[in-house]
Amino acid sequence: MHQDARGTRAFMEWLRSAACVDEDPELFFPVGTAGPALRDVSAAKRVCARCPVTDQCLSFALGSGQASGVWGGTGEEERDRLLRTTRNDVRRRSAL
InterPro entries attached here (predicted)? Predict the structure, then answer.
């Protein structure tokens, strides 16, 4: 087995503990931005609220550029804001 494959598998072990593991994936990837989609996002975030691995999930989403869906208790716009803030912080630190 290639070392990278083992490393990736070990890195993703947190998924086994995720509260969403037995949930319908469509709940976390709603289509649209209004009505039923907003209800799905809220329901997905409630699942995340009881999840023991939200930090790992969010880190994975931010690090791998997951642009859609609910990850680590955050929606698309929230992760976009986090990424922008992080990029701006890095720019400010490198300018010093």
Answer: 4FE4S_WBL (IPR034768), Whib (IPR003482)
Q: Is 48 annotated as a binding residue?
A: yes
Reported as a pLDDT band with limits 50, 70 and 90, residue 12 is confident
The model's pTM is 0.78
Do 57 and 14 form a contact (C-beta atoms < 8 A)?
A: yes
User: Quick count: other Cβ atoms within 10 Å of Cβ 79?
Assistant: 21
Residue 57 known to bind ligand: yes
Query: What are the structure tokens assigned to 5, written together?
Result: 């494959």
Report the candidate in 12, 7, 16, 4 with the shortest Cα–Cα distance to residue 59. Answer: 12
